[in-house]
Specification:
- This protein has about 190 residues and is mainly alpha-helical.
- The protein has one domain.
- Helix content is about 90%, strand content about 0%.
- The protein has 3 helices and no strands.
- Helix 1 packs antiparallel against helix 3 and helix 2 crosses helix 3.
- The radius of gyration is 38 Å and the shape is rod-shaped.
- The two termini are about 30 Å apart.
- The N terminus is likely disordered.
């Protein structure tokens, strides 16, 4: 019985086992990376979700607090525009009209910020839910794929070892059968 009848050499088997172990280590590292990314991004995700939930509640006080940075910027820009009008516009009806238009524009911008924030909050919540679910599935899929590849390598090695043992047992059975035939011939 030659070397080819015995299956894979011990060096090849050791290489396959080493490859499977390496794939398992990669999968374990990917799982750890996924967990680390989750821990780093989750606080921002939670904050965004809390903000969207607050805005989507429709509570006017909560909505006012949520858009207050924008309303402060709008008020500051309006105050600057009104100061420019007071300094540069000639006295009279046009100046008064320009000041009133600045106030109307400020009100419209604040109203638009509130309405837009409220209406967009539902889309934000849906996107956050989809993003979280997608990232979870992706991370799990990467880890599962790595473990699956490692298991396939180990399964292949096991099958080859079973085949090798089968070939050895087949050879022994064949020798036993030959011995029985020779023994029977002498009797």
């Amino acid at each position: 019985m030659g070397k080819s009848d015995q299956g894979l050499s011990p060096a090849v088997q050791a290489g396959e086992l080493s490859n499977s172990n390496a794939l398992t280590a990669i999968a374990t590292q990917q799982q750890a990376n996924s967990q680390q990314l989750f821990q780093e991004s989750n606080p921002g995700f939670v904050r965004a979700e809390d903000q969207a939930m607050t805005i989507s509640s429709g509570d006017p006080y909560a909505l006012a607090r949520a858009i207050s940075p924008a309303t402060q910027q709008i008020a500051s820009a309006t105050a600057g525009a009104k100061q420019n009008i007071m300094s540069n516009a000639p006295a009279g009806g046009e100046k008064n009209l320009a000041l009133e238009q600045a106030d109307v524009s400020q009100g419209a911008q604040v109203g638009q910020a509130a309405t837009g924030s409220f209406l967009q909050s539902f889309n934000s919540l849906a996107q956050l839910a989809g993003q979280g679910t997608g990232e979870s599935i992706s991370g799990a899929g990467t880890a599962i794929s790595g473990y699956n590849s490692a298991n396939q390598g180990l399964n292949s090695l096991g099958q080859q070892q079973i085949q090798q043992k089968g070939a050895q047992l087949g050879a022994l059975t064949s020798l036993g059968s030959d011995a029985a035939t020779v023994g029977a011939a002498f009797i």
